[in-house]
């Protein structure tokens, strides 16, 4: 059962045994092929208005590095683009690989990025996050691709004190909009959480322009551990879900 706990038995191909949604028709991530993308001129720009004071803590939950925000009122919200109404920012986290040539969950025209950052927002018209998970318009995730360049860039500092699973540290006065690339161009499609229970409640908004991180930032991410303190070291890398079938879904773009 140690193997089971490490997720080897419960790898992505087994998730459906406990979470039937994992075999649904609107699963994420998917590959985006530009030739199949449909430009939709009715897709307006998206807008994030985040309060830096809403950032609370950064933690390692053994599966990713996550920053959590106060989402008890409309304090940090995302609106516009494919969305109706204001969605509250709840948390951001990342998926990354064991080397720079892979790590992202979504793949663009065959290109895998070194990492993918997800900013998870939920629709308050459904009362709370648990309620929003059950609705097709319940959650909106902005996905930002990370590519490694020599250029130093400020991304998640504070990774130093959450090396092992369960570690949590204050992470305040942080405005996640600094992570946005220059261009607001995006792709959007309807999909799911990329981890169990894989609910199909997500409007994905994937930004076309990747942001750059430095090699040492990637090394810091890869230095995180799945294990708890005083347990055998189990590096936290390759926490991405394999590609899922598109099943006839159309990916729309805000750009030509
Ligand atoms: N990679 S991703 O952005 O698709 C996420 C995966 C899991 C996310 S969550 O932390 O919001 N939990 C989801 C939960 C479901 C039920 C109880 S919790 S977001
Ligand atoms: Zn994610």
**Major beta-sheet overview:** 13 strands, mixed
Structural class by helix and strand composition: mainly beta
Count of alpha/pi helices: 4
Order of helices and strands: HHEEEEEEEEEHEEEEEHE
The rounded Rg comes to 17 Å
Small molecules held by this entry: N-(2-thienylmethyl)-2,5-thiophenedisulfonamide, zinc ion
Instruction: Please report the total strand number as a whole number.
Output: 15
- Low-confidence spans: none
Helical percent range? under 10%
Distance between the termini: 50 Å
**What share of the residues does DSSP label as strand, in percent?**
25-35%
The shape, in one word, is: globular
Mean pLDDT: 94
Please tell me about this protein's structure.
The chain has helices spanning 2-5, 15-18, 129-132, 215-222, and strands spanning 31-32, 38-39, 46-49, 55-60, 65-69, 77-80, 87-96, 107-108, 115-122, 139-148, 168-170, 186-191, 202-207, 211-213, 252-253. It is mainly β and 256 residues long. β4 and β5 (65-69) form a beta hairpin. The protein is globular. The termini are far apart. Bound molecules: N-(2-thienylmethyl)-2,5-thiophenedisulfonamide and zinc ion.
